[in-house]
Amino acid sequence: MASFKNHNFSSDRFHIERNHRVAEVLALCIAADIETRPYSLPALQKKRIDRIVPDSPSFYIARDLKKTGDETNKTSYTRIVGALFYPGGVYATYNTRDATMKWSGLGEIKTLHNLLELSRMNAGLSKAPDALLFGKDADTALRTILESDKSRRSELRFDRIYRHIHFIPLNQTGMRLLKILIIPDWNEKLLRALFENDQRSYNQGSIEYDAMVDGRMILSHLDGDIARLIRFREALHSRTEPADVLCYPWQVSFLKAYLGAYAGLRELDPASVDAVLHNREGR
Question: pTM score, two decimals?
Answer without folding.
Answer: 0.91
